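Hey,

Quick one before I head out. I ran the complex with N-(aminocarbonyl)-beta-alanine overnight. Inputs first:
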Amino acid sequence: MSTIIKNGTPVTLQGSYKADIKIDNGIITEISTDIPCEAEDVIIDANNQQIFPGGIDLHTHFDHIGVPDDFAAGSKAAIAGGITTVSCFVEGNQELGLLDNFRDWKYRRSATSYVDYTLVPVLSGKYLSEFETEAPLLSEEGVGAVKLFMAYRGAGLLTTDVNLYRTFKNAKKYNLLCNVHCENGDVIDEIVDEWVAAGHKSVINHAYTRTPGLEAEAVYRAMSIANAAGAPVRIVHVSCEDSLDLIASAQKKELPVLAETCPHYLVKDISYLDLPEFEGAKNICAPPLREKKHLAALWKGINDGVITTVSSDHAPVNFNGEYSKQLGRDVWNKIPNGCPGVEEIFSIIYHFGIVEKRISLEKFVEITSVNPAKEFGLYPKKGCIAIGSDADLVILNPSKSRIITHDKQYGKTDYSGYEGFNVTGVITHVISRGEEVVKDGIVLGKEGRGQFIRCNKSHIFAK
Ligand code: URP
Ligand code: ZN
Ligand code: ZN
């Protein structure tokens, strides 16, 4: 028995064309016009709609302390929104060792996943020295990337320059790709203290104190240190033109630098931090939302190939409750950073990118699926519609619209980051390894069906 998707238009890097797709045991086995069907075959009618490779979101924070989405809720939200593979950061637990903590995530905490996933350990505190000896063991467990922070000293996350250098060098030996959060955390902390002491209280001060220059300085430093160590680097959540210019210039010199941005930096400007009645707090993340000119620069960066992927940075923090945005009611610097987004990323990039004519269909596929798969060594198992690849597919009606609302979301955050956004392009089916896991907005797939996917070597190591 096969599954055959009839009457669809697969969208690939090489263009779109009408074809049927045959799937056996979760793998694409044939792509051609008018594939004959046997009586026992399962037929999915794509109804002349577009078929995309499933979205791959390389930046999520499921099951992190204080967030409402555990792995089950976050991954259910992902699959409802057309994301068939996620990469989730493994939050440090300094009571366990680096490897033991990773194994706890791999074998227990992620076991409820609805989607296929990779796991990326965050290196901080004692993990930085443990990484010196445990890096090869992480690699054997299927890890392909790690994450480091140049900010958040107070939370114990900030990595010094010398530790960055040591980690880049060691990571390179085992083909582990370093993802770096680039902001000059110490200077930002100093400025925040000054501004709080001067009596500034409102939400928008978050953006005024975390300047584009202090992001760009850290981006330059991370790229320089990676270069000195002879290692590639992936800069996560790039938010501004200042960073983009430096990344473009490094890439022009053929340095192995990858860059990610997020939907909120592409479609929301700084004014979203200034919404009345504390609503701006829902948009607090780091780096912060920027002035309008940066949004246009980021779209240009995507089209120029400087930005290689778009990820959600799904770090949902509730608006109300014990651990919530309300912690900063009196003064903005107490508002926890992070916003939901894994459920909406596919729709938001489709609407603001393709429908509003900022990017082509091919570019959409490149930044949401092909490049993420290549960057984390998942390609061509994931990231393409091709014979031999996993049948991870999204069928989308390009002419239908919907209004995004919290009421209809699967994620457990008590608001939607895109409440009231009217988006064209409605997902009708999501197929994961050949299984119809979403139909007309209803998740049919079962909790725990997702598989841990081992990362191979990122394509950037070949540069
Ligand atoms: O504000 C953000 N981005 N929160 C999530 C943690 C991070 O920095 O990625
Ligand atoms: Zn970050
Ligand atoms: Zn993040």
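The pocket of N-(aminocarbonyl)-beta-alanine (ligand 1) is lined by residues 61, 181, 237, 285-286, 313, 315, 337-338 (CB under 6 Å).

Talk tomorrow,
K.
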